[in-house]
Every structure is written in C-alpha cells, then in structure tokens.
Please model this.
Amino acid sequence: MTTNVFLAISDPTRRAVLDLLATGSRKAGDIAARFRHLTQPAVSRHLKVLREAGLVNVEVNAQQRIYELKPEGLTELYEWVAKYQAMWPDTLEALERYLDARAVRQKPKGKKR
Amino acid sequence: MTTNVFLAISDPTRRAVLDLLATGSRKAGDIAARFRHLTQPAVSRHLKVLREAGLVNVEVNAQQRIYELKPEGLTELYEWVAKYQAMWPDTLEALERYLDARAVRQKPKGKKR
DNA sequence: ATGTTAAATAACCAGTGTGTTATACAGTGC
DNA sequence: GCACTGTATAACACACTGGTTATTTAACAT
Model:
C-alpha cells in the first residue's frame, strides 16, 4: 500500500509531473510526451502512484484521461514540514521574504496576509 | 548520490527520528533505543542518510555522537510544497488556523507574527 | 596493554521500485 | 464488425532500500 504522499513525492519524475500539472490540467498522453527519456507505460505508472496518493484527479473523456492537480493532497506534507518551520533560525525571515517575492508570479489574487 | 531531502524524508523511521530530534538533541544510542523493532546498525544507517541529506548535525563527544536537528535542511522541501499552498482552495484558511493553533505547543517564545 | 563501550561499517539477503517491451482494454469512427 | 487511438496493465530485469548479523574503529578506564 504505497499510497503515501511522502513516498509519492520522493521521485523526481513525479515531482516534475506535479509541477507540470500546477500549470494546468493535461491529458495523460501530453504528460508522457514531456518525458522524452521515458516510455508511456513508465509515466502511466507514475500517474498511478500520484492517483493513489491522492495528489491528482482524473477526468475521463472518451479514451483520454485528463489529469488535474489536487493540491489538498499535499496537506499532510505541508503540515509536517510546517512544524519545523517554527524552528528555523533567522534564516526563516529571509526565506519568507524570498517566498513572498516569488509568490507574486503565482497567484496575486490571493489575500495579502 | 542519494543525498536528497525528498528521499530522506520518504522513510517513516527517518521522519520519526527527525520528529524526535525536534524535541532536542540526542545521542545516537538513545535514538536507536527508541526503535525497539530495529537494531542499532539499522538506525545508524538511517542517521547516515539524514546526515548526507543535510538534515542533522553530529557533534562528537568521546565515543558518543550527539545528533542535532538542522531544520534549515528542510528549506528545499518547504519551498517546494509552499508553491502549492497558494493553490489551496478555502481549506487553506482552515489549515492555517489549525496550524496556528497547534503552533502554541511548539515554541511560544518565538515572535508573534 | 586489556577490556569495555559507542557507533559505524561490511557483507549479505529479501523485498520493492522503476524501467523496459508486449499486450489488453475501451472508446471512436468507418 | 474492424481498424485505430489513448491509456493502462502484465511480465520481466535490474538496481536500490532497508533489514539482519558480524566486525571494525575509536575513545575511555583500569
């Protein structure tokens, strides 16, 4: 039962898939096409792992499968790492500024906090 | 070169070690003793992985090795998952409140933010 | 020196993960 | 029905992980 988020994101290919899906939903074939060095079945299995870890949704459309990011699936991970954030020394400050800065390109429509 | 943070935290035992070290530094032996079902060498190798991933520091004290958490090592992970946080729906609100609430038990001496 | 303690490393083994090619399955369109 | 398309699954190979026991290394202590 490798339905674990930590395990799911431990693989660089799967992180790349998530990063790709973060920019919008994609058909399975389009995802696979991004990884030149991998075959279609290889990518398909990575997608399966992501599915079982609850990190993506699949929408069936005829023979096509449209994969969509399910960011809530990362809650557990976020929670876990956030615990440690409190222990950051002053570098935390720098990190926050850094993240806030790049957050601009993400979704400025979010509230200011 | 498995000096990867994502890989390092993919193992539950290693996460448990980090969680333990989050409560304070420990001698290698004391850490190993916490895992009844594991032998000393097994834990020692987990510690090695954490070392190589830059998640812990070791202080040598005679024959003893004192392991200390190095939370900055989690920066990369935090950054990665934080990207997705922006995509959270309104559950993000709830999550934040949740984390703020439990943050109290963590380290109230930190600044208020 | 010798023995003891603390931890790491070596050598090995079983299980799992990730890749491949080949194949099956399901829907589309003629 | 039949061919085609898109994706998943099967079967297999191989490397890696994580466990074990046995051993080594290094620092005390007597």
User: Anything to note?
Assistant: The radius of gyration of chain B is 16 Å. Strands of chain B lie at 26-27, 56-61, 64-69. The interface with chain A takes residues 4, 6-7, 9-10, 12, 15, 18, 22, 69, 71-72, 74-75, 77-89, 91, 95, 99, 103, 106-107, 110 of chain B (CB under 8 Å). Residues 5-71 of chain B form a domain with the Arc Repressor Mutant, subunit A fold (CATH 1.10.10.10).
